[in-house]
């Protein structure tokens, strides 16, 4: 089986895990988790230098989920990658489990707790600069939500990264166009988003955020320009793979009933590679 088929199967399982966790006692952030699944799978199954058996290895690449509300997608990806047993996902949101609504360091593979939006890029820059001081070739990857870019701290970190010529830093924007209360362009417009990143001194590319081959090619080849941090704008669909959730603001958070969870699983099984 080739790598593309393997990642397609992994992404399908990750989406099913997301649905299962959203059918748990606390529900979960369904839409933004599903929009980021292919990005996470591309990273963990083709780009990141990580070892599930030694997740604190000093030469590892660093990944930060700045959009921490998509934790269930990260948990599912980490479990599929072997950081902890897949069976542990069933404990999400329970008092006896360690999988919380936002990432915590108790979970193997999670570098730092995140979810206070706007902070992840600065933390990722810190990891990138520490690698430079250690004369190490490790890279730092940060996944941001597009609504998160309304936070000024993101752009302060972007300016700082460019000023420091941190070309081992890669920002990935999950550009699904939606946030909790509506469309990003109706709340605080971001476009022309690629030009904004370029104006802040970054090398920029855009890609279909559900095309894992394109994601792997772009992310794996960073840095794209010497002396410039890299920003990848991944065009995605919130709620990808579920017809009743795709592109809908209401998919932001969901507590799925047994009936809706069954409907969601059936939709995923009918189109196992999402909306691609």
UniProtKB/TrEMBL annotation:
What is the E.C. number? 2.2.1.1
Q: So which domain of life are we looking at? A: Bacteria
MF terms per GO, please? magnesium ion binding; transketolase activity
Gene3D superfamilies xrefs:
3.40.50.970
Q: Which Pfam families match?
A: Transketolase_N
Q: Which UniProt keywords apply?
A: Metal-binding, Thiamine pyrophosphate, Transferase
State its cofactor. thiamine diphosphate
Which SUPFAM superfamilies does this one have?
Thiamin diphosphate-binding fold (THDP-binding)
Give every Transketolase N-terminal domain span. Answer: 9-272
Judged by the first EC level, this protein's enzyme class is transferase
The record's section on PANTHER family has: TRANSKETOLASE, TRANSKETOLASE N-TERMINAL SECTION-RELATED
The name on file for this protein is Transketolase
């Amino acid at each position: 089986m080739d790598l593309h088929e393997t990642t397609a199967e992994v992404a399908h399982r990750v989406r099913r895990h997301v649905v299962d966790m959203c059918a748990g006692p606390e529900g979960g952030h369904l839409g933004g988790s599903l929009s980021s699944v292919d990005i996470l799978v591309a990273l963990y199954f083709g780009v990141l230098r990580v070892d599930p058996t030694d997740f604190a290895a000093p030469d590892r690449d660093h990944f930060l989920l700045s959009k921490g509300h998509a934790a269930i997608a990260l948990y599912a990806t980490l479990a599929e990658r072997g950081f902890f047993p897949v069976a542990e996902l069933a404990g999400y949101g329970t008092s006896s489990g360690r999988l919380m609504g936002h990432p915590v360091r108790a979970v193997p593979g999670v570098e730092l707790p995140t979810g206070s939006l706007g902070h992840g890029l600065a933390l990722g820059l810190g990891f990138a600069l520490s690698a430079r001081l250690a004369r190490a070739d490790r890279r730092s990857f940060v996944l941001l939500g597009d609504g998160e870019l309304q936070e000024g701290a993101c752009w302060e970190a972007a300016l700082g990264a460019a000023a420091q010529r941190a070309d081992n830093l890669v920002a990935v924007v999950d550009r699904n166009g939606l946030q909790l209360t509506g469309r990003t362009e109706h709340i605080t417009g971001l476009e022309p988003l690629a030009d904004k990143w370029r104006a802040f001194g970054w090398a920029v590319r855009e890609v279909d955020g559900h095309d894992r081959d394109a994601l792997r090619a772009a992310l794996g080849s960073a840095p794209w320009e010497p002396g410039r941090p890299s920003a990848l704008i991944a065009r995605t669909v919130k709620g990808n793979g579920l017809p009743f959730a795709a592109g809908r603001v209401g998919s932001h958070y969901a507590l799925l009933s047994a009936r809706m969870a069954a409907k969601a699983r059936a939709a995923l099984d009918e189109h196992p590679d999402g909306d691609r």
